[in-house]
Amino acid sequence: MGDREEWRSERGIGVAKKGRKDWKGANEEDERVALAVDPKHGHWWLQFGPGLLVGYWPSFLFSHLRSHASMVQFGGEIVNTRSSLGGGSRSHTSTQMGSGHFADEGFGKASYFRNLQVVDWDNNLIPLSNLHFLADHPTCYDIRAGTNTLWGDYFYFGGPGRNIRCP
């Protein structure tokens, strides 16, 4: 982890994965994502896969996170920049979250996070505790959680946005 701020353009937040197919023609792909604090400089690094450091957030941006975080959040988010304010139709956006499939459609369709872990004070990966799951608009996007020996703590999430149950 270096001394300068850098972002890799081939992978990053909001960057679509190359060769992306719709779910009918795609194989499930896992991608390891890690976010960790550099103990020497206090920068928060984003890493994809084994060793691809995408970039970091400088320590001065997060003075309250100098040495640790007290909460971790995983999930998806959509933004509706064309919401109707001050009258007119207030229909929900048709922006998809994840693959655009609801969580209960499971493996092969719904997006997921698995093997959810955090790094402890001794730099060891440990499972999460005290998990809470929330879907603000469950008829538009939802979430289903579980635990097993292969995937550890995991959840499926997503949805199509506006649909017959989410006008």
Automatic annotation (TrEMBL):
Domain Neprosin PEP catalytic: 1-167
Domain of life: Eukaryota
PROSITE patterns per record: NEPROSIN_PEP_CD
Residue segments, region Disordered: 1-24
Positions with biased composition (Basic and acidic residues): 1-11
Protein name per Swiss-Prot or TrEMBL: Neprosin PEP catalytic domain-containing protein
